[in-house]
Amino acid sequence: MLVNMNEVLLPAREGRYAVGLFNAVNLELARGILAAAQRTGSPVIMGTAEVLFPYGPLEEVSYYLIPMAKKAGVPVVIHLDHGLKKETCLKALDLGFTSIMYDCSTDDYDTNVEKVREMAEIAHSRGATIEGELGHVGDNTDAAEADPSFFYTDPGQARDFVEKTRVDALAVAVGTAHGAYKLPPKLDFDRIRAIKEQAKVPLVLHGGSGLTDEDFRKAIRAGISKINIFTDINVAAVRGARQHFVSDDKGLTELIPAAVEAVERETAKKMELFGSCGRAL
């Protein structure tokens, strides 16, 4: 069933578990994610991000994600992650996405508030939900960077941001980064707890792929309700296909089931870890 983010994250916040967002830039990823959700009885968030459009254009992704969500036997949110432009967010809403993230985290604070508040009004008028980001979750790079804590989310500012923008969920910067980690991340769990106390909306952890199981458990106990995953399932699909082939005389139709099954296994592992199995309403 197709739902918006509040329908899965508010119960998660109350029940102290997390729901995963898994990006699905092609049909094989989507099939594996949904198979895992239905097998485990887990609510799920599927979608794509603006930076992934070269691999799966937004409109084309909507052709399969939304019908698949409507037919699913578990709650499924179709979410635009890291929408960087107003036009992108509006297009996702027009296509039927039930949730968007308008990422204005690199703007100054007042501009972030103004832009996200305007988009929240539009999303809510269409029955959709919206996620904002405060602080900035960057990328893993080879270059040495300044102290990452400079970009961390301030708990007091988080409360002000939520009250002014009326976002339904808040992505927080607490020590994670996008992509594969080159060094083990150090999450600020005390900061997560402080933000949860101040900002009364579900909190989102970006850059989840590569964290340890204990990192995830502690982050959820501290107050995280949504965790974004892409790298882990993306890599799992390739490994599954590679292991399936012992020679070059196989076709694409033989690769597809191997990739789907690998994505399903990895997604189900994450759902069990996040505590969302059996939580489908």
Mean pLDDT, nearest integer?
91
Q: How many individual β-strands?
A: 9
Alpha-carbon distance between the two ends: 10 Å
Q: Roughly what fraction of the amino acids lie in strands?
A: 15-25%
Helix/strand structural class? alpha/beta
- Helix share, percent: 40-55%
Summarize the structure in words.
The protein is α/β, with parallel strands linked by helices and 281 residues long. Helix content is 47%, strand content 16%. It has 10 helices and 9 strands. The protein has helices spanning 6-15, 27-40, 58-71, 86-95, 109-125, 155-165, 189-198, 213-222, 231-244, 252-274, and strands at 2-3, 19-23, 44-49, 76-83, 99-102, 129-134, 169-172, 203-205, 224-229. The chain has an 8-stranded parallel β-barrel with strand order 2-3-4-5-6-7-8-9, surrounded by 10 helices. The longest helix is centred in the last third of the chain and has 23 residues, at 252-274. The relative contact order is 0.18. Mean pLDDT is 91; it is low at 140-144 and 178-182.
